[in-house]
Amino acid sequence: MRLLIVGPQGAGKGTQASLLAEHLGIPHISTGDIFRANVGAGTELGVLAKTYMDAGDLVPDEVTVAMVAARFDEPDAGRGFLLDGFPRTVPQADKLGEILIERGEDVDKVILLEVPDEILLERMLARGRADDTAEAISRRLELYHTETKPLLDFYAGKLVEIDGVGEIDEVQQRIRTALGH
Predict the structure, then answer these.
(1) Residue 81 labelled as part of a binding site
(2) Pairwise CA distance, residues 123 & 162, whole Å
(3) What is the CATH code for 2-30+80-179?
(4) Which of 17, 97, 124, 155 could serve as 110's disulfide partner, Cβ 3.0–4.6 Å?
(5) Does 146 show up as a binding residue in the annotation?
(6) Is position 176 annotated in a ligand binding site?
(7) pLDDT at residue 120 above 90?
(8) CB atoms within 10 A of CB 48
(9) pTM
(10) pLDDT score, position 131
(11) Element of type H or E holding 24
Protein backbone atom coordinates (compact mmCIF):
# COMPACT_ATOMS: atom_id res chain seq x y z
CA MET A 1 0.00 0.00 0.00
CA ARG A 2 1.34 3.41 -0.98
CA LEU A 3 -0.06 6.15 1.23
CA LEU A 4 0.42 9.84 1.84
CA ILE A 5 -0.55 11.64 5.03
CA VAL A 6 -1.25 15.36 4.82
CA GLY A 7 -2.57 18.01 7.13
CA PRO A 8 -1.43 21.12 8.92
CA GLN A 9 1.48 21.21 11.34
CA GLY A 10 0.30 20.07 14.76
CA ALA A 11 -2.40 17.75 13.37
CA GLY A 12 -0.54 14.65 14.58
CA LYS A 13 0.65 13.37 11.20
CA GLY A 14 3.93 11.93 12.48
CA THR A 15 2.31 10.11 15.40
CA GLN A 16 -0.51 8.69 13.30
CA ALA A 17 1.83 7.78 10.42
CA SER A 18 4.17 5.84 12.73
CA LEU A 19 1.31 3.85 14.25
CA LEU A 20 -0.32 3.11 10.89
CA ALA A 21 2.94 2.18 9.14
CA GLU A 22 3.77 -0.27 11.92
CA HIS A 23 0.27 -1.76 11.71
CA LEU A 24 0.54 -2.16 7.91
CA GLY A 25 4.16 -3.36 7.93
CA ILE A 26 5.38 -0.58 5.64
CA PRO A 27 7.96 2.14 6.35
CA HIS A 28 6.94 5.57 7.60
CA ILE A 29 8.96 7.83 5.33
CA SER A 30 9.30 11.30 6.77
CA THR A 31 11.06 13.90 4.66
CA GLY A 32 12.52 15.36 7.87
CA ASP A 33 14.10 11.97 8.65
CA ILE A 34 15.36 11.66 5.06
CA PHE A 35 17.02 15.09 5.29
CA ARG A 36 18.64 14.26 8.63
CA ALA A 37 19.86 10.86 7.38
CA ASN A 38 21.37 12.30 4.19
CA VAL A 39 22.99 15.26 5.95
CA GLY A 40 24.26 13.01 8.76
CA ALA A 41 25.71 10.46 6.32
CA GLY A 42 27.29 13.21 4.23
CA THR A 43 25.70 11.95 1.00
CA GLU A 44 26.03 14.10 -2.08
CA LEU A 45 22.37 15.12 -1.75
CA GLY A 46 22.80 15.69 1.99
CA VAL A 47 25.75 18.02 1.47
CA LEU A 48 23.77 19.93 -1.16
CA ALA A 49 20.69 20.17 1.08
CA LYS A 50 22.81 21.38 4.01
CA THR A 51 24.11 24.33 1.99
CA TYR A 52 20.52 25.54 1.54
CA MET A 53 19.49 24.81 5.14
CA ASP A 54 22.57 26.55 6.54
CA ALA A 55 21.68 29.63 4.49
CA GLY A 56 18.16 29.54 5.93
CA ASP A 57 16.66 28.69 2.53
CA LEU A 58 14.19 25.98 1.58
CA VAL A 59 15.79 22.95 -0.03
CA PRO A 60 14.82 23.01 -3.74
CA ASP A 61 12.23 20.50 -4.92
CA GLU A 62 14.76 18.72 -7.17
CA VAL A 63 16.92 17.83 -4.16
CA THR A 64 13.96 16.74 -2.03
CA VAL A 65 12.51 14.68 -4.90
CA ALA A 66 15.87 12.97 -5.49
CA MET A 67 16.12 12.05 -1.78
CA VAL A 68 12.58 10.65 -1.74
CA ALA A 69 13.19 8.66 -4.95
CA ALA A 70 16.38 7.19 -3.45
CA ARG A 71 14.44 6.21 -0.30
CA PHE A 72 11.90 4.30 -2.42
CA ASP A 73 14.78 2.16 -3.71
CA GLU A 74 15.53 0.80 -0.24
CA PRO A 75 14.32 -2.81 0.29
CA ASP A 76 11.78 -2.03 3.04
CA ALA A 77 9.80 0.22 0.67
CA GLY A 78 9.21 -2.60 -1.82
CA ARG A 79 5.80 -3.48 -0.31
CA GLY A 80 4.72 0.14 0.00
CA PHE A 81 5.22 3.18 2.18
CA LEU A 82 3.53 5.92 4.16
CA LEU A 83 4.95 9.24 3.05
CA ASP A 84 4.82 12.10 5.58
CA GLY A 85 5.83 15.69 4.77
CA PHE A 86 5.98 15.28 1.00
CA PRO A 87 4.50 16.40 -1.28
CA ARG A 88 3.54 19.78 0.14
CA THR A 89 2.74 21.49 -3.16
CA VAL A 90 1.12 20.50 -6.45
CA PRO A 91 4.45 20.72 -8.36
CA GLN A 92 5.95 18.29 -5.81
CA ALA A 93 2.92 16.00 -6.26
CA ASP A 94 3.51 16.06 -10.04
CA LYS A 95 7.14 15.02 -9.48
CA LEU A 96 6.10 12.27 -7.06
CA GLY A 97 3.65 11.01 -9.67
CA GLU A 98 6.43 10.89 -12.27
CA ILE A 99 8.69 8.91 -9.91
CA LEU A 100 5.95 6.41 -9.16
CA ILE A 101 4.92 6.03 -12.82
CA GLU A 102 8.55 5.18 -13.69
CA ARG A 103 8.34 2.45 -11.04
CA GLY A 104 4.95 1.19 -12.27
CA GLU A 105 3.34 2.35 -9.03
CA ASP A 106 0.82 4.93 -7.87
CA VAL A 107 -0.46 6.48 -4.66
CA ASP A 108 -3.32 4.36 -3.30
CA LYS A 109 -4.80 6.75 -0.75
CA VAL A 110 -4.13 10.19 0.72
CA ILE A 111 -5.03 10.55 4.40
CA LEU A 112 -6.03 14.08 5.34
CA LEU A 113 -5.94 14.82 9.07
CA GLU A 114 -8.38 17.66 9.64
CA VAL A 115 -8.00 19.79 12.76
CA PRO A 116 -9.43 23.31 13.20
CA ASP A 117 -6.83 26.11 13.29
CA GLU A 118 -7.83 27.12 16.83
CA ILE A 119 -7.03 23.62 18.14
CA LEU A 120 -3.77 23.50 16.17
CA LEU A 121 -2.73 26.81 17.72
CA GLU A 122 -3.48 25.47 21.22
CA ARG A 123 -1.60 22.20 20.54
CA MET A 124 1.50 23.92 19.17
CA LEU A 125 1.63 26.56 21.88
CA ALA A 126 1.35 23.77 24.49
CA ARG A 127 4.47 22.07 23.07
CA GLY A 128 6.52 24.96 24.41
CA ARG A 129 9.02 25.03 21.56
CA ALA A 130 10.96 28.24 21.03
CA ASP A 131 9.80 28.54 17.41
CA ASP A 132 6.15 27.97 18.36
CA THR A 133 5.07 31.56 18.93
CA ALA A 134 1.51 32.54 18.02
CA GLU A 135 2.85 34.62 15.11
CA ALA A 136 5.08 31.85 13.75
CA ILE A 137 2.31 29.27 14.05
CA SER A 138 -0.12 31.57 12.24
CA ARG A 139 2.42 32.02 9.39
CA ARG A 140 2.90 28.24 9.09
CA LEU A 141 -0.85 27.66 9.04
CA GLU A 142 -1.27 30.34 6.37
CA LEU A 143 1.42 28.62 4.27
CA TYR A 144 -0.40 25.32 4.69
CA HIS A 145 -3.68 26.85 3.53
CA THR A 146 -2.14 28.54 0.48
CA GLU A 147 0.44 25.96 -0.64
CA THR A 148 -0.66 22.56 0.64
CA LYS A 149 -4.46 22.74 0.50
CA PRO A 150 -4.44 22.68 -3.36
CA LEU A 151 -3.16 19.08 -2.99
CA LEU A 152 -6.64 18.14 -1.81
CA ASP A 153 -8.05 18.86 -5.28
CA PHE A 154 -5.04 17.18 -6.94
CA TYR A 155 -5.70 13.95 -5.00
CA ALA A 156 -9.51 14.32 -4.86
CA GLY A 157 -10.28 10.76 -5.97
CA LYS A 158 -7.88 9.24 -3.44
CA LEU A 159 -8.58 11.48 -0.46
CA VAL A 160 -9.62 9.98 2.88
CA GLU A 161 -10.70 12.75 5.25
CA ILE A 162 -10.15 11.99 8.93
CA ASP A 163 -11.23 14.01 11.96
CA GLY A 164 -7.89 14.55 13.70
CA VAL A 165 -9.41 15.78 16.98
CA GLY A 166 -9.45 13.30 19.85
CA GLU A 167 -7.24 10.78 21.58
CA ILE A 168 -4.40 9.26 19.54
CA ASP A 169 -6.02 5.79 19.58
CA GLU A 170 -9.39 7.20 18.49
CA VAL A 171 -7.87 9.00 15.50
CA GLN A 172 -5.83 5.91 14.58
CA GLN A 173 -8.99 3.77 14.63
CA ARG A 174 -10.76 6.27 12.36
CA ILE A 175 -7.88 6.00 9.88
CA ARG A 176 -7.79 2.19 9.93
CA THR A 177 -11.57 1.98 9.53
CA ALA A 178 -11.52 4.41 6.60
CA LEU A 179 -8.77 2.36 4.92
CA GLY A 180 -10.50 -0.94 5.64
CA HIS A 181 -7.68 -2.16 7.93
Answers:
(1) no
(2) 18
(3) 3.40.50.300
(4) 155
(5) no
(6) no
(7) yes
(8) 17
(9) 0.90
(10) 82
(11) helix 13-24
